[in-house]
Amino acid sequence: MSQKVYIFRAFVRFWHWAQAALIITLLITGFEVHGSYRLFGFERAVDVHTIAAWTLIGLWIFAIFWHVATGEWRQYAPTLKRVGEMMQFYSSGIFKGEDHPYQRTPHLKHNPLQRLTYLFMLVVIGPIIWVSGLLYLFYDQWVLTSLHTWLSLEWVALFHAAGAFVMLAFLISHVYLITAGPTIGAHLKAMITGWDEPH
Q: pLDDT digits over 135-148, tens only?
């Protein structure tokens, strides 16, 4: 039996699960605000969405500070090395029972494909969601400025919804990839306990 390795510290697990809960809340309430269905009612959905958004912003600010202070930001430094191997594994190797080409360690938690995905979410999707969301929230203020001459609420809503759909796709793929460990629940267990089973 292989020896387990302590990969995810308590704060990382808290940050991960709190962020997941807030993002799911934002998706549920956001799609209701967008008119996709009726669950809470429009006004309640707007209130919950706004509270969850501000809470997530606060969590991200604290998490960024923690990552910088502890040096954990290095876990997300992008690399193209072995990206091809990871793509081949996730597209076909995983279905053939091939060995996982990347072994997590406490100092290198994320494989190269994860690092590029997280970078894309951080520098592309994150700004689209946050800028459009804040423009949405403060519409009554910027509509009184010259900004409204070239920017409409419809475009703000379109970008915000597009970002939400990408975030939903990320969430679905994230849940799917949980099953790509040595056992179907190993990755989920690692993110709960902090202890990882080597592939």
A: 999 988 887 887 77
